[in-house]
């Protein structure tokens, strides 16, 4: 019985090590604008959120608008890649922050808070998940190691 408990504990630890802490679109207050580049920290060391503005005079972000996630192989499912988090700026333009991983080998991701994501299929057959929650933190995912 004791060996069975040890086996179960080791299995749980190995499975939990495959999934990192939950990430989500950053709150507007956590996004920094410097010389036309928007950045925000990630929960994972070395990763970050980034966007480059094409505006002559970039404006600070004022609101979170939504997020897009692309499933692997264009198939329904919660594993894939984060597309972007969209924000509105003070001049009413839109900025899409991208999740940039700090390693050369990018890891796949899994949707979290699945109830916040809605599957959409475009007219051309592209499958994506959209999150239009009022809070950026509700548009969450985990990076799989």
Commentary on this structure:
With 145 residues, the protein is mainly beta. The chain has one domain (21-144). The chain contains 1 helix and 11 strands; from the N terminus they run H-E-E-E-E-E-E-E-E-E-E-E. The chain has one helix at 2-16; strands spanning 19-24, 32-34, 37-41, 48-52, 61-71, 79-89, 94-100, 109-111, 117-121, 127-131, 140-144. Strands 1, 2, 3, 4, 5, 6, 7, 8, 9, 10 and 11 form an 11-stranded antiparallel β-sheet that branches. Strand 9 (117-121) and strand 10 (127-131) form a beta hairpin. The longest helix has 15 residues, at 2-16. It starts with a helix and ends with a strand.
| Strand-pairing-aware structural class | mainly beta
- Tally of distinct domains: 1
Mean pLDDT rating:
87
Kindly report how far apart the N and C termini lie.
Answer: 31 Å
Any low-confidence stretches, pLDDT <50, length ≥5? 4-19
Treating each run of at least 4 consecutive H or I residues as one helix, how many helices? Answer: 1
Provide the helix percentage: 10-25%
> In one word, what is the shape?
globular
Range of strand content: over 45%
User: What is the N-to-C order of secondary-structure elements (H for helix, E for strand)?
Assistant: HEEEEEEEEEEE
Rg of Cα set = 18 Å
Tell me the number of strands: 11
Largest sheet: 11 strands, antiparallel
Keywords: Signal
InterPro entries: DUF3757
Organism: Pseudomonas fragi
Protein name: DUF3757 domain-containing protein
């Amino acid at each position: 019985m004791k060996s069975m408990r040890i086996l179960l504990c080791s299995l749980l630890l190995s499975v939990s090590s495959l999934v990192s802490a939950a990430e989500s679109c950053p709150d507007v207050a956590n996004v920094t604008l410097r010389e036309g580049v928007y950045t925000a920290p990630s929960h994972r060391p070395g990763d970050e959120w980034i966007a480059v503005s094409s505006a002559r005079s970039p404006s600070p972000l004022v609101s979170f608008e939504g997020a897009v996630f692309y499933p692997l192989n264009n198939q329904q499912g919660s594993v894939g890649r984060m597309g972007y988090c969209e924000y509105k700026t003070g001049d009413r333009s839109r900025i899409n922050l991208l999740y940039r991983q700090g390693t050369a080998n990018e890891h796949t991701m899994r949707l979290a808070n699945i109830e916040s994501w809605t599957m959409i299929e475009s007219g051309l057959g592209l499958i994506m998940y959209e999150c239009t929650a009022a809070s950026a933190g509700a548009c969450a995912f985990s990076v799989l190691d």
